[in-house]
Structure formats: C-alpha cells, structure tokens
Automatic annotation (TrEMBL), chain A:
<dbReference type="InterPro" id="IPR003782">
    <property type="entry name" value="SCO1/SenC"/>
</dbReference>
<protein>
    <submittedName>
        <fullName>SCO family protein</fullName>
    </submittedName>
</protein>
<dbReference type="Pfam" id="PF02630">
    <property type="entry name" value="SCO1-SenC"/>
</dbReference>
<dbReference type="InterPro" id="IPR036249">
    <property type="entry name" value="Thioredoxin-like_sf"/>
</dbReference>
<comment type="similarity">
    <text>Belongs to the SCO1/2 family.</text>
</comment>
Amino acid sequence: MTALLTRRKVLAGMGVLGLGLLAGCDTRGELSYKYGKDLSDKILGRTFKLKNTDGETMSLSSFRGMMPMIFFGFTQCPAVCPTTLARAAKIKKLMGKDGDRLQVIFITLDPERDTPEILDAYMKAFDPSFVALYGTVEETKATAKEFDVFYEKVPAGDTYTISHTSTSYVYDSRGGLRLGLSTSLSAEECTEDLLTVMEVC
Amino acid sequence: MHPVLNNIKRAAIALSLMGLAFQASAQTKVDNAWVRATVPTQTASGAFMTVTADSDSKLLSVATPIAKDVQIHEMTMKNDVMSMGPVKFVELPAGEAVKLDPNGYHVMLMGLSAQLKEGETVPLTLTVENAKGEKETLEVKAPVRSLTNMEGHDHSKMH
C-alpha cells in the first residue's frame, strides 16, 4: 500500500514536472495579438468528434502538432464562407514554410445538404490540405454549442440559408485555444497574429 | 436605288437603333457583374454587381434561366455573427453606385440547373422601378469567376 502510494506520488511528481516543461510552451494569456481576440482563457472545442470527408472520425487531438484554425459555415453560402476560405488559403501562402503547420478546418453547419462529396470538392477548390468535418444534425448542434457558435436556419423561398458565427478559432500545436479571428480582418493581419502564436507553440 | 443614299439610309437606321438602345438603358446601369463558380452538385451560388440608377429607384428582382429561384439577400454582421435573409428590394438612390457584394446585398441563385464553371457567362435580368412606379428591365451578362476569388473582402476594411 505504502509502496503504491509512493509510486502514485512519483507519478504525480512526474506530472507536475511535465506541466513545468509544458509551461515553456504554454504562456497562456501572455501573448498580445495586434488584431485578433485573445481566447486563451476560454475552453472550446475539447470534445467534439466529427467525420472528415474520408469518413474517419476526427477530434481536436487528431491535429496535434499542427496549428488548427477552425471555422463554421455551409457551402451554399455565397459570401462569407468562400471569402473566409479564400482568406485562409492566402494566409497559408503568406506564412511561407510555417504555413505547412497551419491546418484549416471547416465544420459544416448544414450536414443535411453538405454531403462529403460536396465538402471534399469545395475544400480542394481552395487548398488540397484543407479539412472539412461533418456530423449528424445532433452532432453538429452539440459541436456548435461546444464552440459557443450561434447558427440558425433562415427560410428563403422553398429553401433556407443559415445565419452563423463567422469567427475563426486558432489553436496552438498542443491543442490550446489561443485566438479568435474576425472575418473583417485581412489575410495580412491574420498572418501576423498567427505567427505570434507559432512563436511560442 | 443610289448606292450612296442607300448607305446613308442604313447609317441613319443604325444610329436611330443605337439611340433607342441607349434610351432603354440610360436610367440604370450595371457594372462589374459576376457570379461565383460552384463545385459539382452544389445547388446555390451568389451573383454580385454594382447598380447605379439616375433617379431614386428600387431594384425589385433579378431573374436567370439557370436557377429555379432567385432572391435578393442582405448579409449583416453583428458581433461576428453573419446573418442572411431575403429583402423585398434594394434602394437605389439617384446617382449612387450601390454595391451588391459579399459584404452586403447579394443575389442568391438557388436551385441551379448545372455546375457553374469559371469562364462561363450567366444571363441576368434585373427589374428596377423608379419613383414614378415605372418599371425597367435590364439584361446583364455576368461572367462566372472562380469560387476562390476574394472580391469584396477588402472593401470590408472601408466600413
């Protein structure tokens, strides 16, 4: 029993040590962004599980080592969604070699119309490395809630369009939420803040 | 008939036809119209343009044979939430270039009959009504531009 406790203590100690090592990377709240919103005090997107267009189940940890930039939309969206994706493609280019670590992730809010085929073709039109994720209607609802993303269907004739939060959420390479980027920012402004995140993690 | 006279006659007819055409399109002018390309099986897209009326008018509707339903939508941004919804018309104040771009009003093309590919042209028919209630229709040929083009994004900095 005593021996077991000791072992536990050792393990706990190792855990603390591990955290200490992490601290070298994790300077939560200390980074200052010029354009984006510091979201490091928020915990969003920790538990979602959605499918990619190959049918594989993905979560935030699937992108460990990369810098995920996640945003929500739907492909029938004529304005903000393609503009945000085009901006993401430009950011990736502007980041140069560091852009290889940026993982753009598009989560559809319209799983009823956005089939994996449409999502796949849509992403590839912008950048072959971009990932689109989808879930059932319920999974989509739960994921949006987890990100505090608002969305609602707006009737339009015999069909509908969707109003939604358009923020891009940026995580560091260890899965810590860092930054929220508004759609009003230019690719250049986003790139500057993304490189700030990348400097530490 | 005398060949020279004949030519003059032809020129006169051509001129008067041009005059008619000019009159018909003098009230409202459409610039820089374009439609966003789609991927296969995608059924909706957007059309964008700048509309200038020479007297206070309203853009009532847009029609195209390539979509089952065409609506004018307004996009608004509040607290980073993008909202979209149909509007009944767009005000066209006299002489003002009103932009229908990804940042505000745009034309939703819904129920597309085929994929829209870059380089194609989409015919659009605009119906504009002036303050006197007179309706005017304008035919526009809008080129299809790439899905990935960022037109309109930089304008957001000006708001």
